[in-house]
Amino acid sequence: MTVALEFRDIGVAFGPHQVLHDVSVEVDAGGWLGIVGPNGAGKSTLLRTVAGAVPYDGSVLVEGLPIDSRSQRERAKLVAYVPQRPLFPAGMAVFDYVLLGRTPYLGPLAAESRDDISDVWEALEALHLVEFAARDVATLSGGETQRASFARVLAQKAPIVVLDEATASLDVAAQHEVLELIDRLRKEMGITVVSAIHDLTAAAQFCGRVALMDGGRIVGSGQPGEVLTEELLGTVFEPSIRVIDVDGSTVIVSLRTEETLSDQ
Amino acid sequence: MNAGRPSTTRLHWYWVVGATLVLIVAVIAGVMVGPIALSPVDIMASIINRVPFVSLDTELSVRDEAILWEIRMPRVILGVLVGSMLSAAGASYQGVFRNPLADPYLLGAGAGAGLGATIAIVYAPATSSWIVDPLPLAAFVGAIGGVALAYVLGYTVRSGRTAVTLILAGVAVASFLTALQTFLQQRDSDTLREVYGWILGSLNTAGWGDVALIAPYVAVCLSVVFIGRRLLDILAVGDTEAGTLGVRPGRVRLIFVIFATLGTAAVVSVSGLIGFVGIIVPHTVRLLTSASYRVVIPLSILVGGAFLVVADIIARVAISPGEIPIGVVTALIGAPFFAVVLRTSKGVVS
Fold first, then answer.
1. Are B9 and A111 in contact (CB < 8 Å)?
2. How many domains does chain B fold into?
3. Looking at the domain that runs over A3-262, which CATH code has it been given?
4. Does B4 fall in a domain?
5. Nearest to A226 by CA among A208, A240, A247, A248
6. Distance CA B49, CA B139 (A)
7. What local confidence, expressed as pLDDT, does residue B128 receive?
8. A123 burial class (0-12, 13-18, 19+ CB within 10 angstroms)?
9. Measured between CB atoms, which of B5, B230, B247 is closest to A121?
10. pLDDT tens digit sequence for B284-307
11. Cβ(B306)–Cβ(B77) under 8 Å?
């Protein structure tokens, strides 16, 4: 397996606050790496280095080359990024929003070709958004906007997709549907996925590898079964975390303690 | 299966034809209306007669021809250039700053031009000894200088270079330059009326010389903004996402600010600070058609020209033989019109 994306010794500081300390983790081509950890662990900051949105020490390597050694457009052809809270401009049609994904393939002054338009319709079809093509993207529901984001990512045709808490605002069914969709696209198109993810159960079920972060450091990485253990999660989150097997699937929950229950 | 399907946001031909017709009607009305009425048929014939090897009979006397070609036509063409440029510049600023309240004077172009013009009026009254008229030159330099100052200030902010820091720098620079301008204006009360008149804007001084002076700037600046309009839609998703789509938001912003400012500086140097056009025209277009800058920029260019010509007709005839400053008309007529569009439209103000 070739390594698609590698974070090597990444350090990020905001003023005097060091928020990432020598973070190193990599993901194989076609794999799904989930970044998990409590709020403030540095998951989003790590992913924002790929987007060039934060200054950092160390290197982000895409297919073996430092990402900042490539032009902005070349980067965009290799890595697509969906932030935690994407902006959906009021008045922009869903079609036009997805069409933005074709930007890296256009010269600064060029117009989209028929092929670009065709790619957008394909992406809309893949995400069941054809009937929404003319809708104002800002009027979509939470689940629909997530699908619009992924349609844009699909249109971008980048082999690596970075998702920052892609399903954070969705209900449990919609979240499951979106994660299944990402997994299907990953398998069908061979894309590599790196996602920050809060839901530990979802991480255990969907990610081929997980990296557990705490305090700006990686405290464990590997297959979900190796990292998402009660022992490790207990030290990072709280001791009452339980890892349960339900019909062969891993479920991770936080139980109330006897102490809090007895208060009632 | 998808190849024949069109994209959803297009610059529909009927929008372009409609806006062009509005502009043509405004131009013809602009040259018709005045103390001496000219018929539209004669005007059309006279225009066609300018084509080589064509000769049509007109009822126009030599004096009428002079009124048409030496007085009214340059004034109307100047109105088209100024209105188109201010509207396109306003739309560009709204796009690069993702701010519906942005107008061409946001970063200090207006305040800088005002200060430059005031300095010229107070310290260098126009006389025949000047090789070039110092007033437009000073206004032009002031406008460019104001924006350059805001850019330098905004981009040296330690906490980060964002669109917001740039806007705040522009507000600071504009306030400072306006304070200087007001100080000069108050100290030299003899020129108060002239300064005030300039600030409210007018197409009154127009001759072909003014048109020739600003036309190259307007042509270049409108071309750049028109060709690059797709990039404004990309900036709408925010700098971070725009960056991951392969564009450099800071560079795009700089290019649009440079050309919007250059065009604005050129037109205000001859017309004064005509307000409101840069906000009302792009928003009206947006509300009536689409929020996409692919549509907003070209239609703003056409509608903006028409709007200012119509405003100038009202400025000329409302209290004839006197003249209302055109900046007053653009707000007085534009604001209620915009309120009606805002109330009745289903479009979105973004």
1. no
2. 1
3. 3.40.50.300
4. no
5. A208
6. 37
7. 55
8. buried
9. B5
10. 999 889 889 999 999 999 999 999
11. no
**H or E element that contains A116:** helix A114-126
Chain A nearest CA to B237, separation (Å): 5
Does residue B332 form part of some domain? yes
Tally C-beta pairs within 8 A across A and B.
107
Q: Shortest CB distance from B350 goes to which of A89, A93, A118?
A: A89
Q: How confident is the model at residue B99 (pLDDT cuts 50, 70, 90)?
A: confident
Looking at the complex, does the CB of residue B3 fall below 8 Å from at least one CB of chain A? yes
Q: Which domain holds residue B274?
A: 13-344
Per-residue model confidence (pLDDT) at position B347 = 60
User: In this predicted structure, which of B4-13, B238-247, B283-292 has the lowest mean pLDDT?
Assistant: B4-13
A87/B9 CB distance under 8 A: no
Q: Is the minimum CB–CB distance between B159 and chain A shorter than 8 Å?
A: no
> What's the pLDDT at A120?
94
Least confident of A19-33, A207-221, B129-143: B129-143
Q: Where are the domains of chain A?
A: 3-262
**Least CB–CB distance from A95: residue in B7, B247, B348:** B7
List Cβ neighbours of B121 (8 Å cut-off, separation of 6 or more). B135, B191, B194, B195, B198
Give the ipTM.
0.88
